[in-house]
Amino acid sequence: MTFNEQELVIGCQQRNRVAQKQLYDVFGGKLFAICLRYTKNRTDAEDVLQDAFIKIYENIVTFRNDSPVEYWLRSIVVNTALNHLRQQKHLKQLDDIDGHENVLAGKELVLADFQWQQLMEFIKELPIGCQTIFNLYAIEGYQHNEIAQKLGISEGTSKSQYSRARTLLQEKLNKETRFDDGSVRNK
Amino acid sequence: MMDPSETNSFEEQWKKVFQEASETPPLSTWEGIEARLDKEERKVVPLWWQTPRLWYAAASVAALLMVGIGLWNGSFSSEEKKDAHLAAGKTELVSPDADINTSSESSVEGKTAQQKEAVEVPSIQPETSIAQVESERRRKNSAENPAIIKQDESLASADTEKQVEEDRAAVSSFNNKVAVRKQENNPVSAEAVAGNKDLTNTDKFAAAQSNNVSVEPLNPANLDAASRIVAEALTPIGYKDLDVYVQKRYVFFKPGTITEKPVEKVSKNREYYAAVGLMPATFNPDVKVTSPPAAFANANASRQSLSGNSQAGTSYAVQTQGGKRLSKHWSVETGMSYLQGNSTYEGGYLLDVATSRSQNVLQSALMDKSGQNSGVNTPTSSPPANAFYIDVTKEVRNDYRYLQVPVQAGYTLNPDKKLSYSVLGGMMANFFMNNEIESASGTVITTKASDDVYRSLNWAATTGLRFNYRLSSQWKATLTGSYQKSITSGFKSNETLESRPYLYGVSWGVRYSF
C-alpha cells in the first residue's frame, strides 16, 4: 500500500521520518537515474542524490500542490546536479562547436531497441558539456535560452553543444546493433 | 537546420526512454540522508528555546489551562454522569453489530466480547463511557462495512501499544490516520490489506501491530484509549485540516557592522598638561610699621606712626603651569607666574619745616632699615631735624613684583565629566623682584632684591578651587579661585617693618593635556 503524493508531501512537511523514507522509496529510483545521467560515476550520483533529498526535505514546506510533486523533485535534482558540476568546475569552459548542424539530417533514429541503461551509458560517454546540455534539452525539456541562463553560457553555445551531442550519440547508436536475443552488442 | 518534426521525434524518443527510468540507489545513500537529517534536527535548536520570557509565557498558559480544565471538569461532571448512563444503554444496543464482526474474524470476536464486558464494568470512568458511546455510534453507522470496524479495533490496539512504545507508536499514528482515510474512500477488508504484497515496511509494521494485540485482552484503560482513537480516526479529516508543523527558523545574520572607533578616553590616568592663565587679583602686602621710625619718634609721633595700614590694590598675575596627573583624581602641578601686586599704604607723614620736605612713615621706616642695611635708594638718607608730624592720612602707592613658583597638589572631582572640579593646595615660592613706594614728595622709591631690605624668597601657602571645562579631548578651560598667604615676613628684619602679603585672585586660563 502506498500513499498518494499529497499524503507524502504532508508527512514530509511535518518532518515525519516515515513519510520521508517513503518519499525516498517512491521517487528515489527515478531521481537516482537522473543523477546517473548528469554525472560520470555512481559515487558522484549518490552524492548528488543525497544533497538533493536533503534540499527536498528542507524545502518541501514551500511546495504547493499546483503541480505533480515528481516534477518538483526532478527539478531539484537537476539543479543539484548542475551545482555539483559547477563545483567540480566541469561547466567552466563550454565553447561553441561548429560543423555539427546537419549531421543527423535525414537519419532515422529508433531507440526502442535499446535499454535505457545502454542509452544512459552513451550519454555519460559524451563530453561533460554535451552531456549536460543534452540532458537538459532533450530529456528535461528546457529551452536553449533557459539552459543558457542556467549554465551562464550563450544560447548559441547551448545549441552547438547540443548539436554536437546529437551527432556523437547518433554515431554511437549506429555502431550498435540489436540481436534477436534482445542483447545489444558492438558491431 | 534540422527538420522540426524529426527533431521533435528525436527528443521525444529520448524523453520517453528516460521518463520511467529508475535505478534503486544503494542502501548507503538513504543511510547518509538519514544521518544528515538527524544531524540537522539536532543542530536546529531554536534560540527562543533559551529565552526566559518564552518560559514565563508558557508557564502562564499552562497555569491558565490547568485552571480552565479544572473549572471545565467541575461544571460538566454532572453531564458526564448522565452520559455514562446513556452509554451503558447504548452498549447493549450495539452488541448485534459485534456479533456480525465475530462471524468474520475470531480474534475480533474475542475482542468485542471483552469490550462488552469492559463496558459493563461498574468502575468505568465517565470519559471512557463518552468515548465508547461515540465509538458505538460510529460502529452502528458503519455496520454495513465490518472491515472498518475491524480496522478500528486494530487501530485501537495499535494505540494501546503506542502507550508502551512511544517511538513506534508515532510511526503507526501517522500511518493509521492515513490508512483509515483510505479505508473510508475505498473500503477494503483488513485481511486484504494484510495480504497485500505491496505493503510498505511501515504498513506491515502497523498491520503486524494490529494482529499482535488483537488477541490481548482489553482492560478499561485500554478501551478508553481505543475508543478515543477510533472516534478520532473515523472522523474524516481533510488534508487541509491536518496540522502542518513547520519548523520556524530564526536566521541570525550579522550585517556589515560599522566598526566604531573606540572613543579615546578623555581622562587618562597618566597625563601631562600645560596651562596659561591671567589672574586678576587683589594683593595686600599687609605692611605694618612695628616700631616708630627715628624721625617720627623725634617728632613725638611714635604712636601715630604705628597707625598706618595697607590697602589692597588691583593686581594681576600672568601664570604658566605644568602638571602631571598622578591618578584619576590626584595631580601635582608647578609653574611660574609673574605677579604685579599693587597696593596703597595709608599713614601720616612728617614735614621738615626747614627744608619743606615731607617724609611718610613708610619711607621713614625704610630709611631706618636702609641705614641698617645701607643701600636703599632713597631720596633723603637722613631724617629731618626740625620735622613735625602732619596728622593727615595720606595714601602712598606701594607696589610689588614677584616671580612666583607654585607647587600644588590637586584633587579633581568628576574627572571624566565635561565639567570637573579641582581642589588645590600647596606652597608658593615668591621671589622678590622689586618694590616701589611713592615718596611723600611724590617721587618713587624703588627697592630691589639686591638692596637686602626684602627677603628674596618669601614662602606662601596657597589654596584654591578650580573649575575645569572640557573643550575637547585635550583642551580645557579653567577658572581658578586662589588665595595666597605669605607665611614668612617679606622683610629680612622685622624691627621696624613687617609684611605678610596675601592675595585673592581669580584666574582664567586654558589647559592642554598631552
Write up this protein:
- The complex is a heterodimer of chains A (about 190) and B (about 525).
- Chain A has about 190 residues and is mostly helical.
- Chain A folds into 2 domains: about 5-85, RNA polymerase sigma factor, region 2, helix turn helix motif (Rna Polymerase Sigma Factor, Chain: A, Orthogonal Bundle), CATH 1.10.1740; about 115-185, Winged helix-like DNA-binding domain superfamily/Winged helix DNA-binding domain (Arc Repressor Mutant, subunit A).
- Chain A has helices at about 5-15, 15-40, 40-60, 70-85, 115-125, 130-140, 145-150, 155-175; strands spanning about 175-180, 185.
- In chain A, helix 2 crosses helix 3 (about 40-60), helix 2 (about 15-40) crosses helix 4 and helix 3 (about 40-60) packs across helix 4.
- The mean pLDDT of chain A is about 85.
- Chain B is rod-shaped, with a radius of gyration of 57 Å.
- The longest helix of chain B has about 55 residues, at about 50-105.
- In chain B, strands 1, 3, 4, 5, 6, 7, 8, 9, 10, 11 and 13 form an 11-stranded antiparallel sheet that branches. In chain B, strands 2-12 form a two-stranded antiparallel ribbon.
- Chain B has 2 domains: about 80-240, no CATH class; about 270-514, Beta Barrel (Porin).
- Chain B is α+β, with helices and mostly antiparallel strands and about 525 residues long.
- Chain B contains 13 helices and 13 strands.
- The chains are: A mainly alpha (about 190), B alpha+beta (about 525).
- Chain A: Keywords: Sigma factor, Transcription, Transcription regulation.
- Chain A: InterPro entries: RNA_pol_sigma-70-like (IPR039425), RNA_pol_sigma-70_dom (IPR014284), RNA_pol_sigma70_r2 (IPR007627), RNA_pol_sigma70_r4_t2 (IPR013249), RNA_pol_sigma_r2 (IPR013325), RNA_pol_sigma_r3/r4-like (IPR013324), WH-like_DNA-bd_sf (IPR036388).
- Chain A: One of its GO terms (molecular function) is DNA binding.
- Chain A: This is RNA polymerase sigma-70 factor, ECF subfamily.
- Chain A: It comes from Dyadobacter koreensis.
